């Protein structure tokens, strides 16, 4: 609370728009640390207004990552995906997380937000993602096995990622929701190819039991 007070005092003595935006970024970092979503939302709106007054593009691109993280943390995965994808080639927000973590978030949100064609164009074939995706265990298999319809491999990779999702401070509260959304995506993709299919065939394709599919 005292940190926020001092940031307001400093803002009152600051003239340059860029430096005012930097103060908003400090406020956003405090908001994200304490998961104070009201503070984050107000700070994002404030930063956008400052940018309209003459902020630079580097800070605007940083703001997209902050806002995307806020959207992801509040389960607005579709908007988070859009903001993250816009920032792939301009990422400089290392004060929040390293680039490979950013790619981890981008892939996870994209899988449940984009259609198959968009996923291929914007994620599967994106050079920036290809350059670092192998640094995150199971992430490449998770993305590519979904796109290539290799469902057994997809579920193996998915199970490998679950612990990382559970341990993530922003994703953990949405763990069960995300698990359901991913299964919805992959089951829907599988079923599009058939007019009818037995539970046994589906279970075999995914490498799980019939009871698991039934549930």
TrEMBL record:
Sorted UniProt keywords: Proteasome
Entry coiled-coil feature ranges: none
Keyword Translocase recorded: no
InterPro entries (UniProt xref): PCI_dom, Rpn7/CSN1, Rpn7_N, WH_DNA-bd_sf
Gene3D superfamilies in the record: 1.25.40.570
UniProt domain PCI: residue ranges: 76-215
Protein's job: Acts as a regulatory subunit of the 26S proteasome which is involved in the ATP-dependent degradation of ubiquitinated proteins.
PANTHER family: 26S PROTEASOME NON-ATPASE REGULATORY SUBUNIT 6, 26S PROTESOME SUBUNIT 6
Family designation: Belongs to the proteasome subunit S10 family.
Protein name: 26S proteasome regulatory subunit RPN7
């Amino acid at each position: 609370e005292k940190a926020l007070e001092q940031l307001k005092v400093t803002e009152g003595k600051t003239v340059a728009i860029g430096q005012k935006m930097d103060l908003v970024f400090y406020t956003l970092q405090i908001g994200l640390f304490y998961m104070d979503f009201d503070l984050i939302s107000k700070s994002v709106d404030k930063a956008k207004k400052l940018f309209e007054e003459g902020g630079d593009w580097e800070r605007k691109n940083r703001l997209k990552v902050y806002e995307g993280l806020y959207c992801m943390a509040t389960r607005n995965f579709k908007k988070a995906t859009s903001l993250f994808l816009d920032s792939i080639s301009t990422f400089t927000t290392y004060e929040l997380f390293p680039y490979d973590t950013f790619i981890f978030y981008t892939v996870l949100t994209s899988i449940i937000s984009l259609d198959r064609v968009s996923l291929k164009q914007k994620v599967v074939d994106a050079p920036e993602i290809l350059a670092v995706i192998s640094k995150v265990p199971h992430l490449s298999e998770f993305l590519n096995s979904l796109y290539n319809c290799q469902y057994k491999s997809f579920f193996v990779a998915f199970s490998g990622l679950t612990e990382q999702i559970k341990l993530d401070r922003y994703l953990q509260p949405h763990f069960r929701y995300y698990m359901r959304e991913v299964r919805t995506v992959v089951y829907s993709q599988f079923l599009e190819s058939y007019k009818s299919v037995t539970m046994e065939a589906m279970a075999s394709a995914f490498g799980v039991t019939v009871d698991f599919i039934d549930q």
